[in-house]
Amino acid sequence: MDTAVKINGDFSKRVVELSDDIPWVESPMKGVERRPLDRLGEEVARATSVVRFSPGSHFSEHIHTGGEEFFVLEGVFQDEHGDFPTGSYIRNPPQSKHTPASEEGCTILVKLWQFDLQDRTHVRLDTTTLEHSEDPERKGVFVLPLFKDERECVFIERWNAKVSHSVEATGGVEIFVLEGTIIEAGEELPRNGWLRVPDGYDLKLRAGDEGAKLWIKSGHLRYVTVPNQ
Question: Which residues lie in coiled coils (predicted)?
């Protein structure tokens, strides 16, 4: 993994980032900025970022050779496939193309080049219209599945206040705090906090005094590659 850019590139280690504390970095497109969480590669990269579109900004049409996955944190993301408000979860598989824009502005959590390159499954969900179900093995935790295949699982969880449970970390886990706070290893992650732990990590979480809403992805850290530059 000898790449020109490496941010949090050791996937055998636990990593925490408070994304609100990371400076915005300009992207190649005017009006679009990003906060990198992890990155392997140059402009074409395996990357996890928070990306902000200013009102009226847009990208030109492009192909996602390695796939793109994102969750709308604020505002409305738009492309030729529709308008995607806060709470939308989108998977654009390898070889798909679109023309991203945002008339009113938006902020999204984005993951690039982290798909099976043979995957052709599109996902477009408005999670605000879907119901969570209580996990029968974890009282006070309510789960909304978003995607599952042989490589990974993606879901949203709502944790009641002060609830504590272990989380299975086979294949590694990433967590992004959408609301509230979560405590792990004595460290509190507020809204927009991001945690990544490796395969087999002993992951134990406790929700804060107001509970927490979490975006969680698991299993995928067994498949870390760098796109050809």
Answer: none
